[in-house]
Amino acid sequence: MHEHTGDIKSQREQREGDKTEGEYSLVEPDGTLRVVKYYVDGKSGFVAEVHREPGKYKPAPDEPAYKKPEPSYYKPQSSYEKAEPSYYKPQPSYQKAEPSYFKPQPSYHKPEPSYYKPQPKYY
């Protein structure tokens, strides 16, 4: 019997080249013993024979035999003092700009007169 889970099971297997044969058994929760015999011979694939023996064992209890122990936590006391909050408020570091009274002058120029005069065409 497995001490942590309460399972009753066994297993054996034998191999020789491409041939494997084995058997495993386990007790189901209702107390039935299940025995599975299997073999693989070359390319035949996995062949299993299942045999069941009801009532071989008493049914499993509702709770597993293994119970996980409750953790025991040690909570250390804090050894530091909480710092007081700092309420420092930084002052703005900019200075208000003085108004600028520069008035730009218009940037247009008067075009020079064009003295080109087209000549009449005679046909």
Describe this structure in words.
The chain is mostly beta strands and 123 residues long. Helices cover 0% and strands 28% of the residues. It contains no helices and four strands. The protein has strands at residues 9-16, 19-27, 33-41, 46-53. It has a four-stranded antiparallel β-sheet with strand order 1-2-3-4, with no helix packed on it. Strand 1 (9-16) and strand 2 (19-27) form a beta hairpin. The radius of gyration is 49 Å and the shape is elongated. The termini are far apart.
**Oligomeric state:** single chain
Low-confidence stretches: none
SS-based structural class?
Answer: mainly beta
How much of the sequence is in beta strands?
25-35%
Q: What percent of the residues sit in helical stretches (DSSP H or I)?
A: under 10%
User: Roughly what is the average pLDDT, rounded to an integer?
Assistant: 77
Over all CA atoms, what is the radius of gyration?
49 Å
Task: Quickly list its features.
about 120 residues; 4 strands; about 0% helix
Give a nutshell description of this structure.
This protein is an all-beta fold. It contains no helices and four strands.
How are the elements arranged and paired?
Blueprint lengths: L8 E8 L2 E9 L5 E9 L4 E8 L70
